[in-house]
Description:
The structure is a homodimer.
Chain A: H1 7-20, E1 29-30, H2 33-40, H3 44-56, E2 60-63, E3 67-70, E4 75-83, H4 85-91, E5 96-107, H5 110-116, E6 123-133, E7 136-145, H6 163-170, E8 175-183, H7 186-193, E9 201-210, E10 213-223, E11 229-234
Helix pairs in contact in A: 1-3, 2-3
Chain A binds a DNA duplex through helix 3.
Amino acid sequence: MKLQLFAYEQVKTFIKTRITSGAWKPGDAVPSEAALMAQFSISRMTVNRALRELTAEGMVTRIQGSGTRVAELHRISSRLTIRDIKEEVEERGHTYASTVLLVASEKAAAPLAKSLGLGTGSKVFHTVLVHLENGIPIQHEDRYVNPMAAPDFLQTDFTCFTPAHHLLTCAPLTDASYQIEACLPGNEIAKRLRIKPSEACLAITRRTVSGAHVASVARLVYPGTRYSFAGQFQA
Amino acid sequence: MKLQLFAYEQVKTFIKTRITSGAWKPGDAVPSEAALMAQFSISRMTVNRALRELTAEGMVTRIQGSGTRVAELHRISSRLTIRDIKEEVEERGHTYASTVLLVASEKAAAPLAKSLGLGTGSKVFHTVLVHLENGIPIQHEDRYVNPMAAPDFLQTDFTCFTPAHHLLTCAPLTDASYQIEACLPGNEIAKRLRIKPSEACLAITRRTVSGAHVASVARLVYPGTRYSFAGQFQA
DNA sequence: CAGTGGTCTAGACCACCGA
DNA sequence: CGGTGGTCTAGACCACTGG
């Protein structure tokens, strides 16, 4: 139980409530650090921390030499986390399983090679698997891996560790980019997910970078009726 | 041009590179604040700031009395921003337009009333519109608004201001939750978006709260071939 | 120029954890 | 109990903005 708010939290809530109540409109000036020091009888470092955190949260905008203003709040921004599917399933208390459909080493065609930062025809690892929650398919994963980033990738037992899990342990993540879209699965993937080819799916295309190498490119397809992303925002 | 890193940034990059290079594994101990003070010859507040920011970024975990450890990084987390569609289109340098299909006051059925925090049969505002980018439909918006939160909502000229924009100016945002899923549009919406009913769509269902009231419940449908979310992550 | 924010210091007190 | 992190202070110097 939290009995007492810290000084910097008091300053934050003071400013937040004035913004969320509409008393201070976007573009309005927020009291300066000196003014807030006097008002709350606290030191400048404490005021500074409160305002710095509010900046990070997107509530205010600060310009050195000019001042602090209420940010234009015409957006809803929240943390979206794409997690390891196995962890996610197990955290729900369900049983996770996977069906491995392909584990192979291939020569990369031009577009794929380029996206992995390799030469055309270079050797790449290729895996295809279906992830199951309580025996029901929830994700189709088609992944290409750069052998430079994870030389022993193909030796992994993918029924125990997901490809994503293995990659994260042997090739620490430095950058990632992803795209979320809606698509139809196509006949082959529909069959593997045990859905109709006319059922809409969510697809994530993700590219991960580890140090100097592009580690992996993966396309994850989720049946639209069995999966969705949820997010939350709090001022 | 940034010539010199601040002290707290030096500490952050020192720790980050050791994590992303794999030298420090998840669960490993990070040097204590006292150790980093000595190593960098800086004050504790500065070390503390570096570690506090790394905690916020999800790189490390801190437990008072116990210590700081490298976080389990089996997740990719990034900021997903859902913005006002008009701003988004105009920022791309394209022309925005909208077609207003419905502006009405209705009696709420039970599930809707509940979700808006009102009694069954209460008056609610209802709007339906299609948003166009360069004349092409990109979003179908079906929205219900709590009259308590925005009494003059129906008087707005929705060809100039989007409903979201109006709501944000008259009812400051305090909380929001959303769900992203894939779906088929259905015949009516497909016709309005000028797509085939068999084309997969992204749908966002969003609920916004302003102070004590639920302000609005909206369902936004995007043609899958014309829209996707992109995100990025950087360690 | 005065006012603003951005950073930093060298102390301090406290709450918590583990041995 | 010692070591840890969580917070806070009262100063300081600097870079930037605006009139």
